[in-house]
Write a structure and sequence with these properties.
The protein has 3 domains: about 100 residues, Nucleic acid-binding proteins (OB fold (Dihydrolipoamide Acetyltransferase, E2P)); about 240 residues, BirA Bifunctional Protein, domain 2 (2-Layer Sandwich), CATH 3.30.930.10; about 130 residues, GAD-like domain (Gyrase A, domain 2). The chain is about 30% helix and about 25% strand. It contains 17 helices and 22 strands. An 8-stranded mixed sheet has the order 6-9-10-22-21-20-17-11, sandwiched between helices. A 5-stranded mixed β-barrel has the order 1-2-3-5-4. Strands 12-13-16-14-15 form a 5-stranded antiparallel sheet. Strand 1 and strand 2 form a beta hairpin.
C-alpha cells in the first residue's frame, strides 16, 4: 500500500506502469460518469480518472465507486492504477505531470477530512482569506504550494550556507537557550526556575556573548543557525522569535568578515539560482547614506539621491526658503526625477499627492519645478534669479523634462522625509519591479548615538563593538558595518572589543553603573581577561533574507508557525494563563485583583 511515486513525479516515460500514489484530494469533478480527481502532495499534483468503461474486468468497480463517495476535499487517500496518456487536447502544460493521468484500479480513504475553511490550491493572493484565518489554520495553509515552496527554499538556503561554512573551516556550535538576562537593547523573555525559586533565566536575544567566549575558547571559526527571542512589538519584518545565521571568527578585521559573507552569498547564489553573484558588494559610508538617501539602509537599485542646495537657494527671494534658512540647523535638499524615469507619470495631480505625503512625514510641504531646455518652470520661478536657476540646474544635473523636488526644514527631518519620498517615488514609478537584488555594505558607522527623547548615549549597534577612534573623541567611530539588500538591513557585523578594560570603559560611557557592570557582565569581562584574541563576526537575519529573495512582504510567509502582529499564536492560543498549581510550584504569586477584596490584602 505504500506509494511507488509522488504526485509530482510521473511523466510520459511512465505510461503503462502500475503505480500507487497517496496524497490529499484537492479537487474532483464528474464528466458524465467519468470522474476526475486532482491528487496533491508536497511534490505536485497528479490527475486521477475513474472511467468504468476503460477498466478491465478484474477490477472491483463498485468498490472504487464506493470509495470515491468518501473522497471529500482534502481527504487523505491511497490510489492504485495504470499511468496513461491524457486525451489529446487535455494536456496541462503548466503542470509537470500534465501529460499523463492515472486510470484508477483501487481507491481507499486513509483519513476523511472536514470541509476546509479555505481553498488550498495555488490560489491568487486576492482570493485567499485574511492572514488571521491562515495563521489559525496554519497546518492547512502550509499545504498551499506557495507556502510549501517557501519552506523548501528556506531549507535549500540553509543547506547551501552550511556547505560553504563547513568547507571554510567553520564548526557549528549550539549556545544556551536558558541564559542570564543582560541589557542588550530589547526586552528579554524571562523563564522562572523551579529549582531556584525567585530566580529567572532569560531567552537569548542573540548568542553574542557566548560566541565571543567561544573565541576565547580557541574555537576560531563558529557558526550557528540560531534561534533568538526579543520581547518587542511585531512588524512585517519582526517576530518575537526569529532565526539568525550567526558567525564569529578569531584574528580578523572588518574586510575579512565582509569577504567571508560575500563568498557565502556567492556560493548560495550559485546553489539556488545557478548564477554568479557580482562581488565585491558596493560599500557606502554611513554619512553618505544618510545625506544622499536619508536612510542607513538605502535601496541602491535606483538613483534619486538627495543633493544639498542650501548654499544656492539661500540667494533666492523665495519667502518660504528664507524663513526656513533663518533658523540654525535648517537645510534645503533637491531630488531630480529624470524625464526618462518619470516620463508623463508625474503630472500636477501626482505632485499634489506627493506634497500631501511629505506633510505626513513632518515637513510643511514641498517645492517643485520642471526643467525646460534652458531654465526651470514653476509658478514660483520668478523668485529665483537666473544665476540661482543656473546653479540649481548644474548641481542637480537637470535636463529638459526633469522634475525637481525640493524639501526645506530641520536638516534631520529633511533627510528622513527625503528618504521616504525617494522610496515612494520608486514604488510609484515601478523602479523596484523585477527580480533585481542589490547588496551593499554600510560602513563608517558611529560607535554611539544620542537618544533624541532622553538625550542618553546609546550604542549604535551594541556595546561590544571595537572603537576605531579614541573614546574621548568628539565623534567616536566603531568597527561595525551592516549588510543591506534592496533597502533592508540583513544583519550587523563588527570587530569586537577583546580588551576587558576597554569594554568596561565603553559600559561606563553608556551610563551603566559599576555595580550593574559587574552584575550583568562580570562573567564576560572575566572571560576577556584570560587572553581573548582579536575577533569579530556578523549575524544575518535568515527570515528577512529569505523573504526578500522570495518577494514576500512579511517574514511570516517564510516561517512555518509564526506569531501574528500582536505576538500571539492563533494556532495554539498562546500566550495564555497558567494554572495556579504550576505557579505555586514555581513559587510565583498569581493575583487576580478583580477576584479579591482589597481589604483582604494586608
Amino acid at each position: 500500500m505504500k506509494r511507488t511515486h509522488t504526485c509530482g513525479e510521473l511523466r510520459s516515460a511512465d505510461i503503462g506502469k502500475d503505480v500507487c500514489v497517496q496524497g490529499w484530494v484537492r479537487f474532483s469533478r464528474d464528466h458524465g460518469g467519468v470522474e476526475f480527481i486532482d491528487l496533491a502532495d508536497a511534490y505536485g499534483i497528479t490527475q486521477l480518472v475513474f472511467d468504468p468503461e476503460d477498466i478491465s474486468g478484474g477490477t472491483d468497480k463498485d468498490a472504487i465507486s464506493e470509495a470515491l463517495r468518501s473522497f471529500t476535499r482534502e481527504s487523505v487517500v491511497t490510489v492504485r492504477g495504470t499511468v496513461r496518456k491524457r486525451v489529446e487536447g487535455t494536456d496541462d502544460p503548466k503542470n509537470k505531470t500534465g501529460e499523463i493521468e492515472i486510470l484508477m484500479t483501487y481507491a481507499e480513504v486513509l483519513n476523511r477530512s472536514r470541509t476546509p475553511p479555505f481553498e488550498l490550491g495555488d490560489q491568487k493572493e486576492s482570493v485567499l482569506p485574511g492572514e488571521e484565518i491562515r495563521l489559525r489554520y496554519r497546518y492547512l495553509d502550509l499545504r498551499r504550494p506557495e507556502m510549501n515552496e517557501a519552506l523548501r527554499f528556506r531549507h535549500s538556503f540553509i543547506r547551501a550556507a552550511r556547505e560553504y561554512l563547513d568547507k571554510s573551516g567553520f564548526i557549528e556550535v549550539e549556545t544556551p537557550m536558558l541564559t542570564k538576562s543582560t541589557p542588550e537593547g530589547a526586552r528579554d523573555f524571562i523563564v522562572p526556575s523551579r529549582v531556584h525559586p525567585g530566580t529567572f533565566y532569560a531567552l537569548p536575544q542573540s548568542p553574542q556573548l557566548f560566541k565571543q567566549m567561544l573565541m576565547v575558547g580557541s574555537i576560531d571559526k563558529y557558526y550557528q543557525v540560531a534561534r533568538c527571542f526579543r520581547d518587542e512589538d511585531s512588524r512585517a519584518d519582526r517576530q518575537p522569535e526569529f532565526t539568525q545565521l550567526d558567525t564569529e571568527m578569531s584574528f580578523v578585521g572588518m574586510h575579512d568578515i565582509q569577504d567571508m559573507i560575500e563568498g557565502l552569498m556567492a556560493h548560495i547564489w550559485m546553489s539556488l539560482y545557478g548564477k554568479r553573484l557580482e562581488t565585491p558588494f558596493e560599500r557606502i559610508n554611513f554619512d553618505d547614506a544618510m545625506n544622499r538617501y536619508g536612510s542607513d539602509k538605502p535601496d541602491l537599485r535606483y538613483g534619486l539621491p538627495m543633493v544639498p542646495v542650501t548654499d544656492i537657494v539661500r540667494h533666492a527671494e523665495y519667502d518660504i526658503f528664507q524663513k526656513v534658512l533663518s533658523k540654525e540647523g535648517n537645510a534645503v535638499v533637491g531630488l531630480n526625477v529624470k524625464a526618462d524615469i518619470a516620463g508623463d507619470k508625474i503630472g500636477r495631480n501626482e505632485v499634489d499627492r506627493l506634497i500631501a505625503f511629505i506633510k505626513k512625514t513632518g515637513l510643511g510641504g514641498m517645492t517643485w519645478m520642471r526643467a525646460t531646455k534652458d531654465s526651470l518652470d514653476s509658478n514660483i520661478v520668478k523668485y529665483f534669479p537666473q544665476g540661482v536657476i543656473t546653479k540649481l540646474r548644474e548641481r542637480l544635473d537637470a535636463e529638459e523634462g526633469d522634475l525637481i523636488l525640493m524639501l526645506a526644514g530641520p536638516e534631520r527631518t529633511v533627510l528622513a522625509s527625503g528618504g521616504m519620498l525617494r522610496a515612494k517615488l520608486a514604488e510609484d514609478l515601478g523602479l523596484t519591479d523585477g527580480n533585481t537584488f542589490k547588496f551593499a555594505w554600510l560602513v563608517g558607522c558611529p560607535m554611539f548615538e544620542i537618544d533624541p527623547a532622553s538625550g542618553k548615549k546609546d550604542s549604535f549597534h551594541h556595546p561590544f563593538v571595537m572603537p576605531t577612534t579614541p573614546l574621548d573623541a568628539d565623534n567616536v567611530g566603531g568597527a561595525s558595518f551592516d549588510l543591506i539588500l534592496n533597502g533592508s538591513e540583513l544583519g550587523s557585523g563588527s570587530v569586537r572589543i577583546h580588551d576587558p578594560e576597554v569594554q568596561r570603559k565603553v559600559f561606563r560611557m553608556l551610563g551603566i553603573p559599576e555595580e550593574k557592570i559587574e552584575e550583568n557582565f562580570g562573567f564576560f569581562l572575566e572571560a576577556l581577561g584570560y587572553g581573548a584574541p582579536p575577533h569579530g563576526g556578523i549575524a544575518l537575519g535568515l527570515d528577512r533574507l529569505v523573504s526578500i529573495l522570495l518577494g514576500k512582504e512579511s517574514i511570516r510567509d517564510v516561517i512555518a508557525f509564526p506569531k501574528n502582529k500582536k505576538a500571539q499564536s492563533l494556532l495554539d492560543g498562546s500566550p495564555q494563563k497558567v494554572d495556579d498549581e504550576k505557579l505555586e510550584e514555581l513559587q510565583i504569586l498569581s493575583i487576580a485583583i478583580g477576584d479579591i477584596d482589597i481589604e483582604d490584602i494586608e
